[in-house]
Write a structure and sequence with these properties.
Blueprint: H1 3-25, H2 27-82, H3 86-160, H4 163-189, H5 195-242
């Protein structure tokens, strides 16, 4: 190994020691840097997730539009046949076949992109949880550091100062520790879900329940209509048979 290579290694070694010493002297800055970096990554991930959700919504909208168009065409074909418009009926049937193929493809694509969106959202939630965990760890570790420093200060005070000075040092240490404990308690108390999140969840459940109730009522009405139609058809058949 050449002289300059050894000199480079020596310089990198000194630089690493200097960085390590700076980190040890200011652990709060290290935590802040780590948290800021994760927050930056979280923003990037959130942007990517929003793109997937946008694609899912776009696919859903396109699928619904084509399903609606197919529904309309299926009602138009019998009219064209009854009117003897064979050419129009042929065009409608061709369009029906195209729509059915497109709808089948869109459903497959929607299933795939919906799964990707759910996985991406779960990853985003887990990443957010990691950021919150690191914030709590920062508070806890800095409290431990302050506690350790306070104990060292106590020992130094007891070794070299008078009793009055020792008592004052102890009071300062106790106050510092209590402040750190209070900071940790505040972090624990506010880490739960916010009221807005809970209200949003309740609102979503209420909307789902309302939609379910409407669906059940629609099903009941359609069943009643079908039963009435079958009964009417049976009555007409009985009258014809009697005649």
């Amino acid at each position: 190994m050449g002289f300059f290579a050894r000199l480079g290694q020596l310089w990198r070694g000194f630089f690493s020691l200097w960085i390590s010493d700076a980190e040890n002297r200011n652990p709060e800055a290290v935590y802040e840097a780590a948290i800021d970096e994760r927050i930056k990554k979280h923003r990037e991930l959130k942007k990517a997730v929003s793109g997937i959700v946008y694609l899912r919504n776009k696919t859903q909208t396109e699928l619904e539009a084509k399903e609606q168009e197919l529904k309309e065409i299926l009602t138009q074909i019998p009219v064209a046949l009854d009117e003897g418009e064979d050419e129009a009926a042929l065009v409608l049937i061709q369009r029906k076949d195209e729509l059915e193929t497109s709808i089948a493809e869109l459903r497959i694509e929607l299933d795939k992109v919906s799964q990707q969106a759910e996985e991406a959202k779960n990853g985003l939630i887990q990443f957010q949880a990691e950021i919150e965990r690191l914030k709590r760890e920062k508070v806890e570790m800095l409290a431990k550091k302050a506690n350790a420093e306070a104990r060292i200060k106590i020992n130094e005070t007891l070794d070299g100062l008078s009793t009055d000075a020792d008592i004052k040092a102890l009071e300062n240490v106790r106050e510092s520790i209590q402040k750190k404990v209070a900071e940790a308690d505040v972090s624990s108390e506010i880490k739960g879900a916010s009221l807005d999140d809970k209200l949003a969840a309740i609102k979503a459940k209420a909307a789902t329940a309302s939609a379910r109730a409407q669906l059940d009522e629609m099903k009941r009405q359609r069943a009643a209509q079908k039963a009435a139609a079958q009964q009417a058809a049976g009555g007409e058949a009985g009258v014809k048979k009697t005649m």
